[in-house]
Write a structure and sequence with these properties.
The structure is a single chain. It contains 1 helix and no strands. The chain is mainly α. The radius of gyration is 12 Å and the shape is rod-shaped.
Length: 28
């Protein structure tokens, strides 16, 4: 279990998640 997660990796994950949510709401 990795507790030391790279900061940039976290940013990439969050950005990807936000981008996914925005695309999922495109129909609004």
């Amino acid at each position: 279990m990795k507790l030391k997660i790279p900061f940039l990796e976290t940013i990439r994950t969050v950005t990807g998640l936000v981008d996914y949510l925005l695309k999922d709401r495109e129909w609004l």
